[in-house]
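Researcher: First entry.
Model:
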Amino acid sequence: MLTDQELDEVYTKACYAMAESGEAKQPLFLARLALLLMKEVGDAGRIRGTIEAARSLNDASPPRIPGRFAGDDRLKG
């Protein structure tokens, strides 16, 4: 599991990489990143649950991240 510092570091790295790709290529960067991370996770159930959590970002309730992260309050809302 990522520590808060590790999560911040990799998130920042992803933000810089996305910015470097240019505004027009940001959707492609995010799609490729998502596919690569899905392969790394390697668990279709966790991936499906995470997709649903991402969909719920506009809901009033905070998203629940499935699998080993389900109880990790740092990853909610």
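Researcher: Second entry.
Model:
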Amino acid sequence: MTDNSTDRTVGEVFSALDDCLEREKTALLTGDLDAISALMDEKSELISQLNALGATEDHALDTLKDKAARNQALLGSALDGIRRVADRLADMESLRHSFDTYDSHGKRNTIEGEIVRHVEKRA
């Protein structure tokens, strides 16, 4: 934010925060992680400005709270998705090393997954 941010009115800060929350929603829905990070800083600054100005417009605050809660839910869902992908990649990596199967009697058999390759040089 610029140094003239202290000259803003409550309405201007509300409007800027509303815009920031909408951009954050778009970034969350499109998976733009760089934008999300930058918007977190901007959002924090705008909230600090609202606190400094003593904003008390209940209806406007309720709207912003609702949008922030919506974005928080989207962020939680995005993080859950990232965790699931990481878990799936870990599962796939473990399959490279070994794979367990079970016969009709419930006995486990392990199939080794890594193939050792040798290069034979001939003269």
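Model: Note on the second entry: The helical segments are 10-30, 33-53, 58-97.
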